[in-house]
Amino acid sequence: MAETVTPFGTDRTTGHLLTSLDPLLREWLPRQRWFAGKGRPVTGFTQVAVTELLPPDGRLGLYHLLLRVHQPPVLGAPAHPGDCYQLLIGVREALPPRLAPALIGHVEQGPLAGRTVYEALYDPRPAEVLLEALCTRARIGGLRFERDPDQEIRDGLVPRLMTAEQSNSSIVYGDTFILKLLRRVVPGVNPDLEIPLALAGEGCDRVPAPTAWLLAGPEPEPYVLAVLQPFLNGADDGWELALRELAKGEDFLAEARALGRATAEVHTALARALPTVTLGQAQLRLLVDGMTERLEAAVRAVPALLPYERGLRSAFEALAELAAEGHTWTAQRVHGDLHLGQCLRSPSGTWSLIDFEGEPARPLAERRMPQPPVRDIAGMLRSFDYAAHSANPPDPDWARHCRSAYCSGYAEVAGRDPRTDPVLLRAYETDKAVYEVVYEARHRPEWLPVPLAAVRRLATSDPTLARENRP
């Protein structure tokens, strides 16, 4: 069902703000890394909410916007009302040189005519306004700033914008907190807040507990706009750490095993905190049908998959056959998009998992559905493969050993090695590799050989050989 949104929370003084911003945003938005509609022109906007955080009558003005962005539909795709984006717009008479990279444009019409507007997250003062509002649990227009009263937010934390974000934006405050602002938003319970809160309630310290968060819109399905969590200062990104070890010719086995244990701890805590379900034949049939449909769409989009289609399809059919024989599986809440870049290792060597938003392109209801934990495991196994192929020359043995160590570490905590369910693991890894082929063909063609190598490995036509795909 297409999402519909009723505009809310528009301040009396901001009703015609889009008159000023419309022509500038049409040019600026498609250039942003987090904008999902690249390749299609922006044809207009629908104002969902506009909130004045600082009046523009002084040196600095600040507006919070939720805008639905209209674009021509993707060829062959159903009609879509347009994605809703969160923007923070700063207003000044002129930009100082330090804010030049943040420029959106110079306004020529409307209530801001003669002013300069810019991406406010580059500017420390607007970032301070957000933290102050979270600290005081402010209510501004339709925005509700919430916080955990048991966590302290001290004064004087200097903000800085992180520049490595892709689908969202983050501000670090004094190396103490990190505020993640979700860019493409939908109404409803966002797992990036829901799951860390649930894990905190279980005492699971593998995921930083939310300190504060920003909501907008009416209950019971408000927009989740931002989450403030402790910043893991000095932590290594798992992807970057793996690449460094590869470059030095070092193995990653101890880290992979520890990461497997961390994943299992999170899965175990989630199974306690949130409902689990049993997947029988009917549920597995729907799951397999979804995998098969994605494969068929991928073959149409990337003809290089065609020679492997029958073998890849057999991975899904083998799972359906097990379900028809009466096999069942337990599904629970999972990370949903787990890979090395979603893991951080502290200076003490402790691994943490971050970014529970799931794949933003998928519907929110789908991202919140219980899944077999092996979905996360398959994502991590694919990530080891990607890291190994980033080496020069590629080192498939490195990936194979890391995959084995990760599964062994997982089994130490979970009590069950994911390799003992090879048909389920093969199906999920196949589904992930098919997704990667389409992504790389569209966005990074030079990376396409990486998932295609996995496709060749996974496309055995004999399901009884699934154990050969064990990591």
How is this structure best described in words?
The chain has twelve helices and 18 strands. The chain is α+β, with helices and mostly antiparallel strands and 471 residues long. The chain has two domains: 12-230, no CATH class; 236-469, Aminoglycoside phosphotransferase (APH), C-terminal lobe (Aminoglycoside 3'-phosphotransferase, Chain: A, domain 2, Alpha-Beta Complex), CATH 3.90.1200. Residues 1-6 and 463-470 have low confidence and may be disordered. Strand 6 (139-140) and strand 7 (143-147) form a beta hairpin. Helices cover 37% and strands 19% of the residues.
Would you summarize the structure shown here?
With 471 residues, the protein is of the alpha+beta class. The chain contains twelve helices and 18 strands. The N terminus and C terminus are likely disordered.
List keywords for this structure.
471 residues; alpha+beta; Aminoglycoside 3'-phosphotransferase, Chain: A, domain 2; 2 domains; six-stranded antiparallel sheet; 19% strand; disordered N terminus; disordered C terminus
CATH superfamily of the largest domain: Aminoglycoside phosphotransferase (APH), C-terminal lobe
The biggest beta sheet reads: 7 strands, antiparallel
Query: From the alpha-carbon coordinates, what is the Rg to the nearest angstrom?
Result: 23 Å
The CATH class label of the largest domain is: Alpha Beta
The domain tally reads: 2
Tell me the overall shape.
Answer: globular
CATH topology value of the largest domain: Aminoglycoside 3'-phosphotransferase, Chain: A, domain 2
Q: Give the N-to-C terminal Cα separation.
A: 39 Å
Question: What fraction strand?
Answer: 15-25%
Give the H and E element order: HEEEEEHEEEEEEHEEEHHEHHEEEHHHHH
The assigned structural class equals alpha+beta
The assigned CATH architecture of the largest domain is Alpha-Beta Complex
Q: What is the number of beta strands?
A: 18
Mean pLDDT: 92
Count of helix runs: 12
- Please state how the strands of the largest beta sheet are arranged side by side: 6-7-12-13-10-9-8
Percent helix among the residues?
Answer: 25-40%
Uncertain stretches of 5 or more adjacent residues: 1-6, 463-470
